[in-house]
Structure formats: C-alpha cells, structure tokens
Amino acid sequence: MRPEEGVPVAAKVMELAREGRKLIPLPYVVKGMDLSFSGLLTAATQHVHDGHCRLEDLCFSLQEYIFSMLTEVTERALAHTEKPEVLLTGGVAANQRLQSMLRVMAEGHGAKFCVVPKELSMDNGAMIAWTGIIHYRHGMTVPIEKSFVRLKWRLDEVEVPWVKEDDAD
C-alpha cells in the first residue's frame, strides 16, 4: 500500500478493510485501561512480508483488533463511571466500523452514543486550539517555562473550570 497524496493512511486502511473478510491473528493487549499497540505493526508488517495474506484482510484485521481494544476500554470506563453517554471525537470518529462497535456497546449499557460531526472532528490541532481558547477565557494560563507534555496525563485529573460540578455527574 503506497500512501496517496492527500489521503490519510487511516482512510486508506478503512477503504481496504471494507474488502477484507478473513481475520488474521494479531496481538491483542489490554491491561486494565491501558492499551498496547507495540507489537501490532510489527506483526502486520511481518504478515505483509510473508505474503500469506491479502492486504485487504490485513487491514480488516488491524481495524478489528484496534477497535475491539478501544471498545473494551471504553466499555470498562463506562461501567466504572456509570455515565449516561459516550462521545466519539477526533478523526477516527469518521470510521463507520468503530461507530458501530461503540454504539452497540453503549446501548448495551443503556447509554446514549454520540459522534461529533465529521467537519468538526478531523483536525486535532483545531480541537486543541479551541480548548486553549476556552482555558484562556476562564483565566487559565501557563507560562512557557512551566508547560510540558505529560505522557500519562489522566483525563480525570484535568481541571475543567467551565463545567459546573453538577453538570459533570
């Protein structure tokens, strides 16, 4: 699969996955709320080099494994928090298969399933910038020397002053 100019790799994988039918064994690693994709690409690459499977089946399998892992962790979070809804955002929200898997899971828990409109979910930079604007409007600023990336930052530790405590439940 050669990348096409202007076509995101995930979109090409999704397109090829639609033609896949055979599930190729790949690593599935979920530990609590943590996912590990470290061996997934290696295993997929090995399958391509071995030539024992069609690219469409491999893309189908990648999608099924990754989305199953995401659905499992989302289900665990929903069960623990007992929230009434699940919201899918980001570029991956455009994937119909993931939407389907999460919708079935959410409905099984009596939760509403929502997807951000495609035109509002494709650019993570825009979403991050908008969040920055909201932070700034609520008086939250961080000096450059105190800003950094926290790789294991938990979302439940993020201060969100524009959401009232009553609204968060």
Primary descriptors:
two-stranded parallel sheet; mainly alpha; Nucleotidyltransferase, domain 5; globular; two-stranded antiparallel sheet
Polypeptide structure, described:
- With 169 residues, this protein is mainly alpha-helical.
- It has one domain: ATPase, nucleotide binding domain (Nucleotidyltransferase, domain 5, 2-Layer Sandwich), CATH 3.30.420.
- 49% of the residues lie in helices and 7% in strands.
- The protein has 7 helices and 4 strands, in the order αββααβαβααα.
- The strands form 2 sheets. It has a two-stranded antiparallel ribbon with strand order 1-2. It has a two-stranded parallel ribbon with strand order 3-4.
- Helix 4 links the parallel strand 3 and strand 4.
- Helix 1 crosses helix 3 and helix 3 runs parallel beside helix 4.
- It is globular.
- It starts with 8 loop residues before the first helix and ends with a helix.
